[in-house]
Amino acid sequence: MGASVAASLLAACGGQANPANIADIVYWYGLDDGSHRAYMQAHDVDAFNKANPNIDVQISFKPEADVDRLIQIALSSGKGPDIVPTPGPSYALQYINSNLFLDLDAYAQQYDWKSKVSGWALDAGRVHNKLYSLPGSYPTLIIYYNKTLFAQKGWTVPTNRQEFESLAAEAMGQGIMPFMAGNADSRGSSEWYTTMFFNHYAGPQAVYQALTGEIPWTDPVFVDAIALLLSYFQKGWFGGGVKQYFTNTFNALDAEFAKGKAAMDVEGSWAFSNWPSYFGPNNSGMDYDWFPIPPLRTGVPQNLYTLGIGYTLSVKASSKVADASAKYLNWLYSTPQRAAQELADINFPPPPIPLNPVDFPSNVDPRVKRHYLALDQASSQGTFGYTTWTFWPPRSDVIAYDSLDKVLSGDLTPAQFCAQMNDTFKQELAQGVVPPIPKGQF
Amino acid sequence: MSANQITRRFSSSNGEGFFSEPPARGNTRRRSRRKKYQLLAWVFMLPFFLVNVLVVLGPSLSTFYYSFTDWSGVGAAHFIGLANFQRLFQDTDFHLAVLYNLIWVAMFLTVPIALGLLGSFLLSQIKRFQLLFRAIYFIPYILASVVNAAIWQQLLDPQQGLASVLDRFNVHILDNVYFLGDKNLALASVAFVDNWHFWGFLVVIFLAAMQSIDTELYNAAMVDGAGRWRQFYHITLPGIRSVLGLALLLVTVWSLLVFEYPFIMTQGGPAGATQVMTLLLYKDAFALNEPGYAAAMGLCVSLLATIVALIFVFLRRKGWER
To answer: Whole-number mean pLDDT of chain A?
Structure first.
């Protein structure tokens, strides 16, 4: 019994090749929803195990709020899973710098990941020209709108700053919150707006130059971007005003949005999973749709999508089942129909792999399908921007929301915000903790 | 006085000397029994001592060590001397956090202590329903902080809380008052909720202390014509001084270490207006991946708490409690 307990403990600490020559892969994943866990177990794990009798992927679900800390503790003590998820490339850097992740270049060649995974996303996992992590999902920021409300009011989707501002002013004048917004549930959500205004006002080229250290964050174009953001908040267009923005909760906002009391919502692709609970005949009776964030300055491209990586997957450097782990990762990136089916069934975002219209099942929401096809097209054409939570190093990323709140509350000016961002970013750039920045077609 | 004299005196004083075994032998036995008891006491204490070493001393020592390193949470930690502490001196976020903690200490040394004293004194004057009131005051203290916080978040919500109820009665004094969204109100609002959950605890411990005061003192004071206030000031307060001193110490130390209510209700916001030291420490350790720097911050928090404790020990030695 002692031996079996010891064996179980060892297995829990990391994958082992067991006596029957079955490679046991331990995979930790942060997920709270019970039905989603069951779905993922069946479609992402059991399906693979069935097709690969010599490999046994054992997924262990952890609470979403705790998984990163659990992994940090486990890895730093020489334990942890064979397949390691992290919240993004900049977070993965700490493990890479501590030699805790395996160089995946040999597997990338073996399985030809270059042809299977979008180039920018694969490059985001490279550090010192070695591939250490693979992208798990790729959310972007878009604007959701209450389609029924728009139809009732005769409003059209804005395509430039003038239309954008006219629409916001019109909604405000009619007592409708132009953009639902609030960060009481998650202070970090303020960075959505930093991402939006840096990319759609300053433009992706300026952001690329700043992220690569070519220009400083104190460049007037960034200061103006934050000043514009502040002016919109002060007009009450986002969340009804600054103080209200700080107290608004997501659930209350979602309900208001679905009832037509708010017109639009700037949020990531993940929000598609929220709307079925609020919109539709069984809920508010209203309908929603989405459109890309319009350019807020002349010269910024239309149909620009800021790219982000929701999470990354890596293999632990000390894993004894690295080959099998790589084979499993390859399976995840070689099954677009599986990913699209998952998107249709439980709104699970797919990894950044090329998706064709035929990959999507018939039960997929056409709005979701259109979104991912547009995002896929943008990423392949290079018309993309950069989300703060993916391409900013950790401390600069905290400034993107923490200090932005101070701009909104009047404690910092836009120029001071940019100076803070610049000082911190310069330090982090010197420390080598800025993740690789893919270059778009500017 | 020699050992023999002590033995003899002890033996004869307890009346055992003449009838028991010779004094020297009895003394040896007693001594060995005492040693046995002492050993037994140590054996009983050992598990607690070991647990303490494991969960308090060990982490404390490792925190002390990491505070002098640049540890990122994984990998090797490099010794950087006093660099973390030098950075603390320049860190405006840390200075603000210390200020918020001091404001918190000031609020908690006044409002709940005053309410606790008042509540317990009033309760000590009544006999009927005293138990009921004690229970009512104490209930918030035993509720989970998450539950308390959620209730008050709802109540303070400008759209769904008290403001909307008052609106129904055409009372608009709370319209556009954002208790948790206004940087000027947020810290006081969170402290109010923490205070609401905490003051009942003080009522109960103050009341217990008041009940141990000799009632004859109050009777004598009444005969001398002392009113309620003079009774409270000259009899009650001196009578509970030791408990009051302990309460002040605990309230100060707990206020320096406050975490849960600001974390649950505002996450340190809006715009850092409720970011007390422990929240900043948490952010540095887990969001910024700088546990080495966070350890230095933690050490400073502990140092502040130790200074407070030492002040109380000093005052106690000076006879403040007597």
So the answer is: 92
DSSP 8-state code for residue A352: S
pLDDT digits over B14-42, tens only? Answer: 444 444 455 566 677 778 888 888 888 88
Q: How far is A98 from chain B (nearest CA, A)?
A: 5
* Closest chain B CA to residue A65: B286
| Pair A59, A73: CB distance under 8 Å | no
Alpha carbon of residue A269 to chain centroid: 8
Look at strands A384-386 and A305-307 and give their pairing: parallel
- What gap in Å lies between CA A31 and CA B238, rounded to an integer? 57
Contact A94 B74 (CB under 8 A): yes
Closest CA to A124 of A158, A92, A97: A92
The amino acid that residue A416 corresponds to is Q
The one-letter amino acid at A217: W
Q: How far apart are CA A268 and CA A288, in angstroms?
A: 15
Residue type, A128: H
Q: Residue by residue, what is the 3-state secondary structure of chain A?
A: CHHHHHHHHHHHHCCCECCCCCEEEEEEEECCCHHHHHHHHHHHHHHHHHHCCCEEEEEEEECCCCHHHHHHHHHHCCCCCCEEEECCHHHHHHHHHCCCECCCHHHHHHHCHHHHCCHHHHHHCEECCEECCEECCCCCEEEEEEHHHHHHHCCCCCCCHHHHHHHHHHHHHCCCEEEECCCCCCHHHHHHHHHHHHHHHHCHHHHHHHHCCCCCCCCHHHHHHHHHHHHHHHCCCECCCHHHHHHCCHHHHHHHHHHCCEEEEEEEHHHHHCHHHCCCCCCCCCCEEEECCCCCCCCCCCCCEEECCCCEEEEECCCCCHHHHHHHHHHHHCCHHHHHHHHHHHCCCCCCCCCCHHHCCCCCCHHHHHHHHHHHHHHHHCCEEECHHHHCCHHHHHHHHHHHHHHHHCCCCHHHHHHHHHHHHHHHHHHCCCCCCCCCCC
Residues of chain A with C-beta less than 8 angstroms from the C-beta of B181: 184, 242-247
The length of chain B, given as a count of residues: 322
Beta carbon pairs, A and B, within 8 Å: 79
Q: What span, in angstroms and rounded, lies between the C-alpha atoms of A319 and A83? A: 9
Cβ count within 10 A of residue B147: 12
> Which tokens is A378 given?
């943008």
Give the pairing of strands A134-135 and A312-315.
antiparallel
Q: Which helix (H) or strand (E) holds A365?
A: none
A328, A329, A339: which is closest to A54 by C-alpha?
A: A328
Flag if A246 and B269 touch (Cβ within 8 Å): yes
CB B308 within 8 A of CB B256: yes
β-bridge partners, A265? A144, A180
Does the reported pTM lie above 0.90? no
Residue A13 Cα, gap to closest chain B Cα (Å): 17
Chain A residues with CB within 8 Å of chain B CB: 69, 72, 75-76, 91, 94-95, 97-100, 183-184, 186-187, 242-247, 252, 394-395, 398, 402, 405-406, 408-409, 411
User: Min CA distance, A153 vs chain B (Å)?
Assistant: 25
- To the nearest whole Å, the CA of B157 is away from the closest chain A CA by 7
Of B72, B74, B270, the CB nearest to A405: B270
Return the HEC string of B262-281.
HHHHCCCCCCCCCCCHHHHH
pLDDT in tens, B167-189: 999 998 898 899 999 999 999 99
B chain contacts of residue A243, beta-carbon cutoff 8 Å: 176, 178, 181-182, 270
A28: enclosing H helix or E strand: strand A23-30
Interface TM-score (ipTM) > 0.85: no
Say whether A75 and B180 touch across the interface (CB within 8 A). no
Give the pLDDT confidence score for residue A424 in this predicted structure: 95
